Amino acid sequence: VSCHSNQCLLCSSTYSNSVQPDLLPSHVTHFISFFYIPRHFIPPMSTPTKRRLMKDLKDLENTKNRTVFAAPLQDDILTWCALIIGPKDTPFEDATFSMTMSFDESYPCTPPTCKFISKVYHPNIYANGDLCLDILTNRWSPTFNVMTVLMSVQSMLNDPNVQSPANLEAANLFDNDRKCYVRRVRDCVEKSWYDLDSEIEKNEND
């Protein structure tokens, strides 16, 4: 599933979600203009999981946090697309990483499956985009929600667990050659701008 499918509510609109442009770099505000969630989107509320996901969606709409964004596909509330902006004053600052979140009917008793679409150079992210993050496995709680996951992933970017690496090279550089690690991270940050811009342009032309 592409984070920029023409069925994704995050990418199907061109209305800004109340972002203040003066607080973010111009390339980021351009991307975020695609993250307005239409108010008329009301999927069938046939299960507790779907009702919970709609609550999570409302919570996201109402949050003042403007560094993480997520919404479901228009025809599938169990499949979400997300955008995570790299945390300020870190090597990941201004990154625009796209990610998918897949839920099943056991949510929130079980966590979603999260996978980066963007290439992210990080000790706890596999080459295929899978994440090694404890709250998505053994430390999951039914009290967590979509915002919890997004904020945890964002926090993990600058606070890796090198004791449980998914990318051995990145973990080794983080421990032993921080300058080289930062260069590799900045390379993937810059690539994330162009990748996301290309995906949005492709979506506009579909």
Automatic annotation (TrEMBL):
InterPro entries, A to Z: Ub_conjugating_enzyme, UBC, UBQ-conjugating_AS, UBQ-conjugating_enzyme/RWD
SMART domains on file: UBCc
UniProt record, GO biological process: cellular response to unfolded protein; cytoplasm protein quality control by the ubiquitin-proteasome system; DNA-templated transcription termination; donor selection; double-strand break repair via homologous recombination; ERAD pathway; error-free postreplication DNA repair; error-free translesion synthesis
Origin: domain of life: Eukaryota
Keyword line: ATP-binding, Ligase, Nucleotide-binding, Transferase, Ubl conjugation pathway
Residues at the catalytic site: C132 (glycyl thioester intermediate)
All residue ranges annotated as the UBC core domain in the record: 48-194
Name the record gives this protein: Ubiquitin-protein ligase
Native source organism of the sequence: Trachipleistophora hominis
Highest classification ranks of the organism: Eukaryota, Fungi, Fungi incertae sedis, Microsporidia, Pleistophoridae
